[in-house]
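Now for today's protein:

——
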Amino acid sequence: MQKAQVRILAVMLLLSMALVVSGLAQAWRSGASHAAVVERAADAAMGLHPAALLSGLREGAAGPLLVAGILVMLATPFVRLGLLICSFVQERDWTYVACCGLVAAVLVVSFALRVGHG
């Protein structure tokens, strides 16, 4: 189980890096400056609808590639936490299941509060 977890997290890291590098390469090919690309990606991320993100990814646009890479990187700790909970349940280590569950609850509540104010 632990080797599978490491592989999953490694794939997420590599996917994130590939998306970010692809986004930067696409931006440089289009002649945009680094600061302009980052600014456009940040603006796009603030109000980007998932359908618009997928459409931008299909087109290979720089901003959506960068945003997707960052989203994959941000999802990595959540996936890690989920994998830990599954591992501890399998081992019947209820203390660690409870600790991980508490951390997951804090993350979900903090995310929900932030989304509500955004």
Observations:
- The longest helix spans residues 62-91.
- The mean pLDDT is 83.
